[in-house]
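2024-03-11 09:14:02 INFO receiving multi-entity request
2024-03-11 09:14:02 INFO entity count = two
2024-03-11 09:14:03 INFO echoing inputs for audit
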Amino acid sequence: MSDIESTLTRIQGHKGVIGVIIVNNQGVPLRSTFEHDAMTKQYADLIPSLADLARNLVRDLDPQNDLEFLRIRSHKHEIMVAAKDDFVLLVIQDPSASA
Amino acid sequence: MSDQKTPPKSGLPTKPSSGQQGPGYQPRQSSKWPPGAPRASTTAQPRQSVSGQARGSFRKSTRQSNRSQGGTETERLQVVVDGVDRTPKPLLSLNPTVLKGVQNDTTTPNSESSEFFMDRMSTTAFTKAGWYSNADSGTHTPKSEIDYDYETEKNRERKAAEEMAMAAGYGDDAGTGAGDLARGPPREEEPPPTPVLLSERDLERSVYLTLHETETIFIWQAAGVTVAMDTEEAKTVEEANRRYANLLHTKQATDKYVDAEAQTLVALTKSRDVQSAVLVTRSSAVQATAWDISDTFRALDEAAADAEDDPRGAAVSASMPSISQMAGGVTKYTGAPKQGGGDTSARVTVAGINRSSMFGGGGTSFMSLAAGAQPSGHMSGLSANLNLPNGVPVEAPAAAPPELADPLQALSGLPEALMLMDYAINQNNYLQQLLLYRDIQPLPGIRSSVTAAMRGGAASSGGGPGDDADSDVLSHTGGAPGRDTRPLSAAPSDGGRSHHSEMGRSGGGFQQQQPRMSNLPGQLSRQPSERSIPYSRGLSLRDGHGGGGDDRRSARHSHGGGGGFGAGGGGGYAASVAESNWPEELLQELADLGDDAPRMEHLWDWVCPMTAGKNVACMGWNKANPDLLAVGYGCYSFPSGNATTNNTTAQNQQQQAQQQAAGTEAGSSSAGGASGGGTSSASSGGTAAAAAAASDAIKGLVAFWSLKNLQHPLWSFEVKAAVTALDFSTYSPNVLAIGLYDGTVAIYDIKSRQGTPSMESDVHSGKHADPVWKVKWLDHGPERDEPLVSISTDGRVTQWSIAKGLEFSDLMKLKRMARRGAGGPPTTAAAAAAKEGGGAKAAAAVPEQQDAFISRLTSGMAFDFSSRDERIYVAATEDGWLHKCSTSYSEQYLESYRGHMGPVYQVQFSPFKRDMFISASGDWTIRMWQEGRDTPLLTFQASTTEVNDVQWCPTNSTVFGSVTASGRLEIWDFSLSTVKPVMHQKTTMKMSCLLFAPNYPVVVCGGEDGAVKAYRIFNVSHEYDTLQEQLERLDDCIRANVMKSQAAA
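2024-03-11 09:21:47 INFO inference complete, emitting structure
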């Protein structure tokens, strides 16, 4: 198993992790651990645009800077987004959940 | 002579002559050459036309007579322009003689009707050649006559002009008369050679000549620029003039006006016609942000750099290398032109795969991917894709089509992103523990949530109330109403416990549990332990979650308020201590201490599947980044079936310890070198084989753990043999030295992240023959180089220099101390004791070795350099001796310390009192020594198992920690007790090493299950004490304890 797969498995095994989605830069979800495509699609539609916004902000402030990570803490979840040029990796975690 | 054919300008003279022509010709003439020749004045013409009428009629009569006379003359026409004969040549070549005749004819003055020449030619020349011949021969006009004819003709023309002028001026009669006069003679003289073609009627016909004024032709026209003063326009013109004058005036008045002469070159202009394509222009707009520009320029720079690297590579680079680069995460930005091809092709495959995996059902789920049968094809496709860039032949099952390549491999930067994500989730999950580790006291609001969350983690399976607490981690706002009201109602009844309400608001579950516990006191000690099985300390763990004393106070209050559980301050501790079976007297001491009692709390295990089951052999903090812990793994214990035949050194040591312990018991505490010597020689025989077996069988592993990710090492690499020692360099924090079970000392540069050593000792370069038990970089200050010192079972203490390769020099060869240390009655007594002891077969088997050692060297197990004098170090040996040595003398020991009866596994100088050191031994004891005293100051023994490691606490001069083979982690504070450790942690595994964190009150320990456990220790550090205070405390304790022990003795 490759490093990527093992890391993905590890991430998914963490406490409280609800789902892992990898969306490519065309908005197509490459991976999703959600059972329902609708949920995947919703996240894949919404989060990358927010990440783009955040990246624009960071880069506008300093062109040599770049967005590394984005966390969205909501009442229920925490959405963690690692946005790169080629893809957006997002993990939805329930931080108060037990292992 | 006919001028009629000439251009109009020369036709003027013929005009009058036309009047002399036969009336039959006139109409044609007029139609053919319209009047209005340039020189003909328009004013004169009308008059002429008027007069012409009369003249024509007049001339008719004369012509009539004329014709009648010369009607037969040859009407030959000649065109002369500027004195050159321009007569059109006939299209047919005629007989020269005929021509001659014709020529002769033309000489006749009768040329008026020359426009009919061609007609006549056709009749004469073609039909009447014979006639011409006749004429030639018969009626030939003499030459002179021709000349004369010319002259007369000219005269006649002149006369005609005059006539015309006269006609204009004086009237027709005079003109005609003159013309008639002039014409008269030749006509009459001429013979009429040709027959008359015109009939009389023609001649009778009247001739009308109409002259018209031509249209005005403007060749050039220039309108006048002057405007009359009385026109409307004049005003504007005047106004413009005035303005212009004004302008001129002001211009002259300005400073810039210079009235100077200037010579200017006439710009030579040349106009040429050039044909060119139509210039196409197109305008487009683009919006670029600052970072767009930044990226673009960086991409350009990179492209330029790439082009410099390989000039043709940019074009040639196929998609394959590019993909592999991206898979390796090398290229972060694919915007560079070079990457274009590979990038797109990768995208294509990504898109293609994505469809299959997305709609393939199970393929989208990781778990099913790992376990399911259908995705196994996907998995193998995965590995196939992994291998592709390396060109490794793929053993893909036929079920896995090649297009099932993993799209994730093509995403550049994915591994990094995943790593980051892993960190983030870890930070989330271990936030409380990390805060504890960092010794951060959470703010009240956060603290309560922290405790609630931790409680949720610990007691989540408790159901009902516990789960409620879980969901209420951070929310003071959105909690269940029932829980919100409870603390509010409880607070007034609690009276002075104002802080209790804050605790209770978020810790509702805890609050709810408390009454239940208090109602059932008997369950109290059991219930928490059931819930938190990983934590062996149950309730004490709960109490400790908050960290500082403040929190615990509030926790205690809630205990009290919950229903009178416990007996005041130390109640919680009493429960926890009771559970852990601590000795009664210590329990009492701790109870007396109350809040300040030292305690310990498990934070986490650094363990992952890769390391699980491997023995943690050694650990080392990075000197520059104290959050980075390097852990060396290597299993050097073998299954018990092999242990009897294939001894490892470790087991030898254990056996030694047992033997020595037996010997000690039997021989009444005089161990002596004999038994030690005997067993060690036996073990040295076994180690070589054991080392070989170990290097073949089990590889070592070095993993780098950090606080960023507690569940996966930052990096790890395998080594050829079990790792037995490691140390980070101080001044080159990326340099790691490791010692291996096979005796190798290797230097790794961990920054390069290569699993191969930068330097490695081999048999030619001083490799140890036996396991290396400790390596340590010596800190001699930043100016001097940093040598590495290693100690091994082969008895050598070796210093390594990495300045030029890995060079070694032996600091010391550890010699046996049997003769010098105890050559006499004790030895024989020990031997006798060994013989008496039934288990000590080894010693009994070789009694002669007391006098003649097979090996003169003893085995080194540990060493430590003094901070007081960098040349002084203490070496611990397997035969129980501690030797104080100097790097300056490689032959003899400065001092030897005797007391341990088993192999000494660790020795360390005190960080506060520089001449004091502590040692841990396989004889179950920990001993404290002072330089200059060859007997131990203090001896600690808490259990009946070997002590594998001992470490001073860096923040408290009277605290040290130890781990035992039975799996106990003990923290001693000999200011409190020298009999029992102030706290301990019991695990099931054999512990092998221990470290205090350099910056935080945390201790980490590792053992044979491959987990590195981190514990937060409370109330042991006096980090804010000055060195003087620490020393005073230490001295006081030692003095008191030594006096006590002496008194006891």
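2024-03-11 09:21:48 INFO post-check: Residues 44-70 of chain B form the longest helix (27 residues).
2024-03-11 09:21:48 INFO post-check: Chain B has a mean pLDDT of 64.
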